[in-house]
Amino acid sequence: MLYVLLTLLVVTGATQALDEAVLHRLRPGDAWNDAQVLWSPWMSRLRPSRMYFLLAVTSVVVSLWRRSWWPSFLGLALAGVSGVVALATKVAVHRPDPHGYVTESGGAYPSGHTVALVVCLSGCLLVCWPRVRWWLWAPVLAATALLTTALLVAGAHWLTDLVGGLLLAFAVVAGYSRTALRRKAHRQPPRTGEDARPPSDTAVIDR
């Protein structure tokens, strides 16, 4: 698994030279300039709490519409599994961010912002559509590009933090896209009332 391989490279320090080169390229001398002013607000606009809230609301609305709680279970599974794996990795790797700071929830690897955004936006698509058309992924790609650029330009994460977050998110989304849980989330509710009545003899004759 690519995520495991990258994690091992990060732990051994094999990626540090690349990470530092990219950071220096985007923030020479670690100075705050117009680029940071332009891009950094996207870190707040696309923060994890908003992404998880969006997935939760979408899952509940779809559950009510389909009269089934399976869509909510799918959304919960996506958020829960990705969050637990990301948090466990953060605690295990305990990697400082480019400024040498380690948060109380763990290190910088993988990027929690990236995991939350990709999993939650992709999760909304998986919950809403049984077959996701290719063009529906465009907003996910656009939001991911905005967030990763902002995190890099602001120096909030190393490059490999973001790549690790993407790999983890892709693995979770791809895995749940083919599970029985997703099939149950798109199962049509049983018909009731007039819709549930079998066709009458007259209707059969008329046909």
Automatic annotation (TrEMBL):
Signal peptide: none annotated. Keywords: Membrane, Transmembrane, Transmembrane helix. The chain crosses the membrane at residues 49-66, 73-93, 113-129, 136-156, 162-181. SMART domains: acidPPc. Residues 73-177 form the Phosphatidic acid phosphatase type 2/haloperoxidase domain. Pfam families: PAP2. The keyword Transcription regulation does not apply. The keyword Membrane applies. This is Phosphatidic acid phosphatase type 2/haloperoxidase domain-containing protein. InterPro entries: PAP2/HPO (IPR000326), PAP2/HPO_sf (IPR036938). Residues 192-207 have a biased composition (Basic and acidic residues). The lineage of its organism: Bacteria, Bacillati, Actinomycetota, Actinomycetes, Micrococcales.
